[in-house]
Specification:
498 residues, alpha/beta, Rossmann fold, 7-stranded mixed beta sheet, 4-stranded parallel beta sheet, 19 helices, 17 strands, 15% strand, globular, tryptophan biosynthesis, lyase, pyridoxal phosphate, TrpB-like_PALP_sf, amino-acid biosynthesis
């Protein structure tokens, strides 16, 4: 395992060909070195480590960005009264502790020991320098990526699935329901439920259900029931199928189906994989680790890039860095990247809208394409949500981040370059971040600017290879949103003055 840094639980004997940082020891075991060297990011023979799974502890608290924002985000509204939502309004869907976290203004929230023990299965996750990608791009930029694909489900989603299921189990809940787009969230929730002996039922967007059977099989392996959405099981699904029997589905539709089941069954709660505050909160373990990892190698990011669909992966990495930016300690540009075919933050309206298609959820102030918007079944099923996390939307409105959209052929072209240099096959979602990173690195080549670029690599694409096949066979085409369909969808947004 030459030219790698790995974190180990205890000191071990190694060969001289290894480069390993022994956890708890203030020394590098140098690459091809005859003796240990002082800790320094450059090794004695001049080679730079490609990976750094630095000696950081798993964070013991989640970070709540709301506590440090100069302007608090607008509250969610009851869909019938249009008044700010009350805790009791959410009790049919969520356990008490998650309701508290959703509305919390506390800066830090302790992670339960039981959750930390499960996090140890994959955390801390590696911060890796993309040395080979830098070389093929011939860029002076230094590119790092925080890789969440080593979790059991292959993405960042278990960071919130585990605590959500834990709090449900602690309250005695025996059944949970959810929706999933690309299948990353559904498989993560199924994994978490298997650990706490809770039944799990998932509505998977039809386009993804058909395109990604192995995601469905992952869920079923962990014991979940999986339905294509829209389905005939719920009233919301039946209405959609009556209007369009060949509907490809959407996350908004799948949310409506799952919420309907939870709201009409007293023994069942609902879990959500993105968008809500408590979900973004749980993901901040990513950024908290990454801050320490970058500090340990003496680097500060000039630019942080992440893909956005609902926003949890992006928030998880960036929110702790935004905290440091608000303190004046660092000043990175923070850039979100979304698909051109579903540009909720770059083309959407900032307004109160439902989180689901049927209008069962609270109204949230967010960037939205309209809750009736159904995007084309593009490759990245998980980036097809009609809205953006309210907290990310608020941060964007405050000017603490920027956003761009990129078409899918460029994303896959970039993902191929990444796979053939760094070796990792990215899930379709982070290909957007890879494409934006390559754009920036090539600009650095032109300008000579040696920026430090930090990228969110939220999961692997081992079960998304049909999308790669489509690209490699030359059959992947760029799909763009329809201005007319967005206008029609936006016309149905509730008129709320706030």
């Amino acid at each position: 395992m030459a030219n790698q840094f790995l974190v180990l639980s205890n000191p071990v004997s190694i060969s001289r060909s290894s480069s390993i940082y022994v956890k708890g020891k203030e020394q590098w075991l140098g690459c091809c070195a005859s003796k240990t060297k002082p800790m320094h990011p450059w090794l004695s023979n001049g080679c730079r480590a490609r990976a750094s799974l630095n000696a950081v502890e798993i964070p013991r608290q989640w970070y709540n960005l709301i506590a440090d924002l100069p302007v608090k985000p607008p509250p969610p509204l009851h869909p019938k009264t249009l008044q700010p939502i009350k805790p009791e309004d959410l009790s049919p869907l969520f356990p008490d502790e998650l309701i508290k976290q959703e509305a919390s203004n506390d800066r830090f929230i302790d992670i339960p020991d039981e959750v930390l023990e499960i996090y140890k299965l994959w955390r801390p996750t590696p911060l890796i320098r993309a040395k080979r990608l830098e070389k093929i791009l011939d860029t002076p930029a230094r590119i790092y990526y925080k890789y969440e694909g080593i979790s059991p489900a292959g993405s960042h989603k278990p960071n919130t699935a585990v605590p959500q299921v834990y709090y449900n189990a602690k309250q005695g809940v025996k059944n949970v329901v959810t929706e999933t787009g690309a299948g990353q969230w559904g498989s993560s929730l199924a994994f978490a439920c298997s650990l706490f002996d809770i039944d799990c039922e998932v509505w998977q967007v039809r386009a993804s259900y058909d395109q990604k059977p192995y995601r469905r099989l992952m869920m079923q392996t962990w014991g979940a029931k999986v339905h294509p959405s829209p389905s005939n099981i719920t009233e919301a699904g039946r209405k959609i199928l009556e209007a369009d029997p060949s509907s490809p589905g959407s996350l908004g539709i799948a949310i409506s189906e799952a919420v309907e089941v939870a709201a009409t069954n007293a023994d069942t709660k609902y879990c959500l994989g993105s968008v809500l505050n408590h979900v973004l909160l749980h993901q901040t373990v990513i950024g908290e680790e990454c801050i320490k990892q970058m500090e340990s190698i003496g680097e500060t990011p000039d630019l942080i890039i992440g893909c956005i669909g609902g926003g949890s992966n992006f928030a998880g990495l960036t929110f702790p860095f935004i905290r440091e930016k608000l303190k004046g300690k660092i000043n990175p540009v923070i850039r979100a990247v979304e698909p051109a075919a579903c540009p909720s933050i770059t083309k959407g309206l900032y307004a109160y809208d439902y989180g689901d298609t049927a209008g069962m959820t609270p109204l949230m102030k967010m960037h939205t394409l309209g809750h009736n918007f159904i995007p084309d079944p593009i490759h990245a099923g998980g980036l097809r949500y009609h809205g953006m996390a309210p907290l990310i939307s608020h941060v964007y409105e405050l000017g603490f981040m920027e956003a761009i959209s990129i078409p899918q052929t460029e994303c896959f072209q970039s993902a191929i370059r990444f796979a053939r240099s760094e070796g990792l096959i990215a899930a379709p979602e982070p290909t957007h971040a890879i494409a934006a990173t390559i754009r920036e690195a090539l600009q650095c080549k032109e300008s000579g600017d040696a920026k430090v670029i930090l990228m969110a690599m939220c999961g692997h694409g081992h079960f998304d290879l049909t999308s790669y096949e489509t690209y490699l066979q030359g059959n992947l085409v760029d799909l763009s949103f329809s201005e007319e369909s967005i206008r029609e969808s936006l016309a149905k947004i509730p008129l709320v003055v706030a």
